[in-house]
Design a protein that fits this description.
The chain is mainly α. The chain has helices at about 5-20, 25-45, 55, 60-70, 80-95, 100-105, 105-115, 125-135.
Length: about 140
């Protein structure tokens, strides 16, 4: 994932990346999905306190659309992928607060929490569920 100085170029590449997931062979799609979520998370953490944070915010709806599409059972997402998706959503909520409440407080977030609660015996899942509860209760 690349960010360019002009928003239009970045948006074009984001559209192409989100759309390209539908074209990737199934054996590679899980890795691609995970890397895209990881990449956006890295950008979020790196840019949240900079002048670029507003530009990054513009891409949040597309990233959430990507998550909405790729977390579906037909893609056999791993528990790790689902956890990383929820972590990204909660990080976005933490960094942007009320600006993204309408994007975060959705059925997608509720479903990810519900799924991960089934695996709360995994310490990393328990940790993200606690983080989610803390952040989301403050929105």
């Amino acid at each position: 994932v690349f960010f360019f100085n002009d928003t239009a170029t970045t948006e074009i590449y984001t559209e192409q990346i989100v759309g390209s997931v539908r074209c990737v062979q199934e054996t590679d799609s899980e890795q691609l999905r995970e890397k895209l979520v990881d990449s956006f998370t890295c950008f979020l953490h790196a840019l949240c306190d900079t002048s670029y944070s507003q530009q990054l915010l513009e891409f949040v709806p597309k990233v959430f659309e990507f998550i909405q599409y790729t977390y579906q059972p037909k893609f056999n997402p791993t528990v790790e992928f689902l956890r990383n998706c929820l972590a990204l959503i909660v990080d976005v909520a933490h960094f942007y607060g009320q600006k993204v409440a309408h994007l975060v407080k959705t059925q997608l977030t509720e479903e990810l929490v519900k799924i991960l609660k089934k695996f709360d015996n995994i310490p990393a899942n328990k940790k993200i569920l606690e983080y989610a509860q803390n952040v989301l209760s403050n929105l």
